[in-house]
Fold these 2 entries.
Entry 1:
Amino acid sequence: MDAAELKAYEELQPIHPDPASFLRRYVFSLDHKVIAKQFLWSGLIFLLVGGTLAMMIRWQWAYPGQPVPVLGSLLLKNSNGVIGPATYMTVFTMHGLIMIFFAITPILIGAFGNYCIPLMIGARDMAFPFLNLASFWTFALSLVLVICSFFGQLGAAGAGWTTYPPLSTNIGTPGNGQTFMVAAIFVTGVSSIMGGINYVTTVIRHRAPGMGYFRMPLTVWGLWLTAILNVLFVPVLGSAALLLFLDRVFGTQFFIAGAAAVKGGGDPILFQHLFWIFGHPEVYILILPAWGIVSDILSFFSRKPANWYRGSVYAMCLVTVLSAVVYGHHMFMTGMNPLLGQSFMLLTLIISVPAEVLFLNWLRTIWSGSIRTDPPMLFALGMVFVFGLGGLTGLYLGATVPDIYLHDTMFVVGHFHLTMAAASFMGSLAAIYYWFPKMFGRTMSPGLGKLHFWWSVVLITLVFTGQLIAGYAGQSRRLYDPYQYSFLQHLRPLNQYTSYAAFILLAGQFVFIYNFIHSMAAGPKASDNPWSVGTLEWFTTSPPPHHNFDRVPVVLRGPHEFADPEVRERLGRDWIGQAEVLPDAAALPATSRGA
Amino acid sequence: MLLFAAPLEGHGYGMPHDASLDGWRIDALINETSFFVILLFVIMVAWMLWAVFRHGRNHPARFDHGSSRRSIAVVLGIAAAIFFVVDGHLFVNSVLSWRDVFGNFAWAESQPEAVRVEVNAHQWSWAVRYAGPDGKFNTPDDIVLLNEVVVPQGAPIIFQLVATDVIHAFNIPNMRAKIDVVPGMVNRLWFTPKETGEFDIACAQHCGANHYKMKAKLTVLPRADYQRWAAEASANSARAFDPDDKDGHWGWEWSEHSRI
């Protein structure tokens, strides 16, 4: 690295003075770290809202038509605490939309994308700080629309999170609650695209000197690929939402078809194509950041290099590409041409190969390590566990023949909750426990963290395997009262056990809320590098200064250099920083030239 | 025509009783895949537990990037083996079952004893129509039913389905049969009932507040009973036929293509 090149980097990312006013510092901040925290708080609050809605659904399946304890008297005064069929459909619709677009997305992508990308690649901020600010405040506008939806005439949106027309047009859901939600999806899409453009550009342009693509932490790879998917596919969702909005508000008929009473020469299936060509990449948008984070954490806490780093990178890239061409498996039952169905089946099954490579790399990373069972590691292992179950149950649904029976059952619900909800949840918590000291400069209680882990992993497994079993036994999803059907009446106890598990799962999250808030205010001060890890964010203070790095770091090696005997000999420890010069080394060891 | 008191009830946590001739293909494929899935999951969990408990803090970590040629070969080899065995099993059997049975409408249509049923789904009921003795739909001798389908045992039953308002899905778990019913297109479905009895027909696609109540009853009768029932039902429908009720004549000409 010569001086001129280093100077060019310093000029690309000059140090700006800290903002002085309160508004500039904490509200309309350009600092990626502050914006990350804004996304984190919004996401956590809406996670709680979505979780509360989930409890109402679980209550309904356990005790259909009976007054909801506690929440019923607060939220359902008009119906004496009972969830009516029309309210029920708004509850599960809002649960799905809030969890996906307004909880997981802001936490994993908004918060950790913003926080980790610049710090882990040695940048002083995002490439476009103002776009970043605009991304958050556009997202905030979409949250306002979500809140408006709850107060809409005829209640909130009710057409399911998939928002299939014609049900989602005025034919099925005439209230403006649905219109508000369609608008909210469009607006949050705009926010995601702005964020995505920013992340993609930042990784390409702002990597520190020496930070080649194959020296980036896998977290950054996961987030970067996610950003690429966001930029490519959220516009498709945006177009679908816009056309649906026109159908609802301006009387167009893009998605309306049917008999004389309904009229319309449009095509309801067109919406499904638009929705799922976004929707399947979306499930990888939600899980790729968690895959990346977990790939890193498993290595960091096993004190061992990540197994076949490049293999994990190639696997994530292949998943990213394939995610665009498998979406048809959501539509096997729509009367799709059998040859097209079989093509989508083959492509869907092929995507299991890179997923298996990732899994095998994770399992081989922890093998023969020196494992520390700190909370981030426990949650990372928990993510592998629940994603294993979720990924394997996806096999049945990717094949056309088992899907005849399992389509639209609770088996699907259990499967996608294990992959998208449970795995993203575990990944998010691994990230929160891991980066908390860096973000807030304080330490969370490891004891409460471990309690939170065991509470969560046991109950989350019970809840979602309960759903898998109910679906295998034939229970359709989204039923207000499953026991209308003779062949489902015997599933009442199963649904009740599953609901109890869900209630206890929610109760356990208060351990986390206490730990999170209490540690932020009064936790022990964190050191700069509490986990003894070599990636760049640990080479600045906790929390980092406004400009992240006083001097742009010069990267010398990959992110997972643990247990190197040469490092142990010269430094007396099992790790070395990515930008740390190995003392007394004329020629760097072969292992530090990239991974 | 109540031969049985109520539709078949389920028990245990397994799949509902399979009363169809070809449902075993679905069940077998699901259960065989479950064998592989459970095996792989158990190996994964055992591996993780072993690593966590035996390779803990006191175990020295091995300095290994896993990027040797041999190490990569192991990862790719295991991934390929799982793909060809587990995924391949699913793919081949799905393609064959679809070709031979579930998508083989040509065979079903060619059977002389096949029964053809048109279904018109709307919020929140199933209107059902048979061609009657003349074999033509939308004529006065059509059998017209609501939320009820009666079929003979052992004959291919072919359904063509449309929806007037929103998307529904025609679902008979005991027959392992399901298909979306979409406004603007005709979808189709066929199966052969193996056993007589009564079974639930459910809507599987969220279609509004009363989606959960959109159910119908499938009655499978012995062939002779079915013939008697059909003659009687056709005569009843003919008596109730109203030539001015245009909305009531929602049937369409049977086509062997799924889209018209």
Entry 2:
Amino acid sequence: MTHSIFKSIKLINPATNFNQKVNVVIQNETIISISKDLNLEKFNRDDQTIIYDCEGLTMSPGIFDMRVNIGKTENLKFTQITAAESGITSMAVLPNQTPKLNNPSIIDHIKRQSEDINLPKVMVYGAATKDLNGLEMSEIGLMSEMGAIGFTNGNKSIKNSLVMRRLMSYATMINRPIIQHAEDEDLSGVNQASTTSIRGEMNEGEISTRLGLIGIPACAEVIMIERDIRLAKLTGAHYHVAHVSTRDAVNVIREAKKSGIKITCDTAPPYFSLNESKLLTYNTAFKLSPPLRSEDDRLAIIEGIQDGTIDAIASDHRARSKDTKAQPFSAASVGASGIETLFSITLDLVHKKIIDINKVISLLTINPSKILGIDSPSLEEEKVADFVVFDENEPHTIKQENLKTSPTPFDGEKIHGKILATYINGQVAFMNKILKNKIIK
Amino acid sequence: MNKLFKNNSEFNKSSPVKLSSHHLLAIEGMQKTEIKKLLDRADYFANLDKHADTKYLSRYVVLNVFFENSTRTRVSFELAARRLGAEVINISLINSSIKKGESLLDTASTLNAMKPDLLIVRHPHSGAPLLFAEYLSCSIINAGDGRHEHPTQALLDALTIKRRIGYLEGLKISICGDISNSRVARSNIHLLTTMGAEVRCVAPSTLMPSSLEKLGVKCFNDMKEGIKDADVVMLLRLQNERMSGTENPSEREYFNFFGLDETKLSLANPNAVIMHPGPMNRGVEIASALADDANRSLIKTQVEMGVAVRMSIIEALNHSKNKT
């Protein structure tokens, strides 16, 4: 029998509100013991028992990254491996990949393709509309039966109000959320075919004026959310807003929650840690959708995280090739990598004394599962050993050259906190040498 | 402060200017003293006979790379470089490698491999010349990038005003028209505010960019208010190619409210001069008769000053590179 023992580790388990220093024993794929006093005699040291001295380290459920784009630069397996190295044990992928995830058989295919006992679990969002065209409902019932966990048009808004109404209404029958990229695309100009006419490129304001780039007004986000809230009220659907980026959106979602609408939302690290001033050098690593907003919007996202208006934090990973980014800003591709920095940038909220560590772990683990109606991970005895081990305080600097995906908007960022190991089904999916060096012989 | 300024005004016009950079990418961020020196040197060139020997830059190779149509700017740069004795090669990339799918950086590094001394770039995308400057070893002049800047135009406009009125500081200058889509407007705003002029921007609200007042200008939607007592009225072309069709009801409505005619001009300073970076749409931005009014219109002088200003810049970039 294989035993792994994590001695004197701080265990954070949001599902049971647990945060204590304990000893955790894993046997095969199961947690068999969580205790203050560890009786090593109980375990036969002759067979494969490994003891890690985890003084100063922390264990929590693995991250559930609820928004990942699998782009042209990646394949699913590569993204899974990268995710495992980043503390992610489950991830939900968007339907806007090639081929589009818009029918039951491809949902099934992706699930089977990604089934690997030792890699992060892949969950799939189905395309809400056929071919993501925004005009006709796709087979969301059949996709749901194949395991699609929610429906969305990915990085495009579901624009047509009637289509959105029908989708929401239908989704109530299968008890799945509709996930919206909230953007009035006419207002933001992204519907325009040409790249040089009026296609929105960044947040509208003083900086877009200085740079001569086309602005996307902040209200392009809230306009869509306000409409959708009315439709959610009409239909009783669970409506989820992805990557919230503006103060107005946070305010409107806060009020809708108070009035009893079934609404949830997430944001991504760029929106609580960066603002539009990053664009002053036309650095295309910061060309995102939604665009980086004003400092006031950034502060509002933080307030939303603090007061619980924002339910979850996702990477919004959208890696791009260097070639499509080494372009004039207007011609460059939209999006940035995220899975590799999700944990550390979010943990930075603790070091900046914005929220506590328990909250960070909730935002990254059980909250996404609750939103998507999936069994919440919980680190208790007799449960599956899906977890991460990390050092909350390990200082390091994010460097593009050390990452596997690009571009990162956090190049050069000095942060604290590092993933040391990721366990999936009791197996080591990733282990850093820092932890390997802590094995007690 | 005063002493510094006095020293600058005693700058010797007969020698090349040294700048802090060997590129000219934008006016934003340029020092007042540098602008002043460039203008003084350009003034010196403007006073020379066109056949005077100014061939200081032999064996200097200039590539005039235009990703967007242009006649006046391209020719003006070419003349300026030739008068300095440089070799000039014009490259129009509107239809060639772009269509073949080559990336901008590949195009740029191909050109760079031919080891030019200077690349003059016009590009439809804001910020493109900065990308060139980041990756290439030669000097870069921004000859207009998207809606961002057109620094040489602002310098030639300033020289035109200085030669007519004598100074820039304290002048009331109204920039009128399609500010939103105009790189000329942005460069002029930065240059004229840096030099101490009072800059006003006049545009329909649909063509007034967001938070423009943060660039240190006053904004007006009423042209009559905006050009009141102005010493200079600078008009901009309506850039229909950069619009979606939702900005303006019609050209005649535009002319009614924002076209310069005798009535509106009568509100400006009686000696006010009229400028336009060209090409102009007669009867849209400006009444035809005013454009041709030799006493008030400086439009032709602007073109003339373009060559002198560009000579001063090309020479300065060469000088700044050699000496740094």
